[in-house]
Specification:
Blueprint (H helix, E strand, L loop, with lengths): L5 H4 L3 H6 L5 H14 L9 E7 L4 H18 L2 E7 L1 H14 L5 E3 L16 H10 L5 H7 E2 L2 E2 L2 E6 L2 E5 H6 L9 H13 L14 H12 L16 H14 L13 H7 L5 E4 L2 H7 L5 H6 E4 L14 E7 L6 H11 L2 H11 L15 H4 L9 H4 L11 H8 L2 H10 L5 H15 L2
Helix pairs in contact: 3-4, 4-15, 4-16, 6-15, 10-11, 11-20, 20-21
Length: 439
Amino acid sequence: MHDFTRRSLLQGGTALAAAGALTGPALLDFAKAWAQASPWKAESGAKLTVMRWKRFVPAEDDAFNAMVAAFKTATGTEMNVFSESFEDVQPKASVAANTGSGLDLAWGLHTLPQLFPAQVLQLNDVADYLGKKYGGWTEAAAVTCKQGDNWLGIPVATIGGYMTYRKSSVEKAGFKDFPKDFPGFLEMCKALKKNNTPAGFPLGHASGDANAWLHWILWGHGAYTVDKDNKVIINSPETVKALEYCKALSDTFIPGVASWNDSSNNKAFLSGELHCTANGISIYVAAKDDPTKKELTEDTYHALWPVGPIGKPTELQLCVPILAFKFTKYPNAAKAFIAFMLEKENYDKWLMGARGYLTHTLNAYDNSPVWTADPKNQVFSQASKRALPASGIGTPGEKAATAIADFLVVDMFANYCTGAKDAKTAIAETERQLKRIYR
């Protein structure tokens, strides 16, 4: 394989068939029956343009495309689906929101619908329909997509990120089990470095990975960007402690993390340079699918995020919500497509196609077969339930979404850990930026 990125490494073409997914006539028969009974009837001549993030697991993409094709045939809706990188989804969705054209639906990340609440179609009916049918929504996923009582989008899934590590390296470092708290985690990383089997986490603009692990450290120390009333509180002793802990960690890392993007740790781990990082299941799946990496596959394990001084999980997981724009000419078709995506006949098999990369946000899928198909998948099943919303203890909304999209927390940590700024300056700069957003 010539390119160790998520986009090219994950080969899973046989997984969908193994999952027993509805395909061909069976899928089409289901889609036709569903369209007849659906609360939303697609408008005559409906045409939907859908933007999504680029697939990281080919079998997930296969399942998604099969759903799109079945929906198109069953409802008569023309479907134009295209993919963009994580980094490009939000800017292109923003252009559509500002111009009132170009897209009907956008499937993005974190709190995308909150960036332009006035431009999205409210989806209360879709959320109620799915929630009642499938055991309700996980808390963080629901909060991420709601403004008051209104649903601005539907949380299709969570891309769970957890500790990915070489078991042999952790054991050689003196740890029988993966550490469960911050002090133990730091000591393990120090020992890994000493053995020349280092850990590494991105300090660059990695939309998913950097935001995830740095918010985990911030929140784990009881520090937040804003309080429950959205008052900026980043300038605190707890933030200083979080920075100091992060600096001690970063001193143990493999060189180059300051410029890492979301695929860099995948490449380093799979090439044998990196022995502990935080990531979706994509690293493990890539190793499983490469016959030359059998030893690496057997040695790769997953663990929950260690818990910080606050004493409870403080995970920022990557929610991937879908929204429909208010200016779409085909609102019924848009709602029908979103609901169709999450119906059991589609969604359970879609999760299998994703091979653990996507985690459900509806409670009825707790027992999806993907979580027992491989024991190493199981930890990812908890992502939606253990997560905090991207706003931390604040109110999810356009302002919190902007802070995430602008990498304010990431840059604060990176500036301190690389020595570009001292703690006081790094915090003060972030405080000013947050106050501009939360004014």
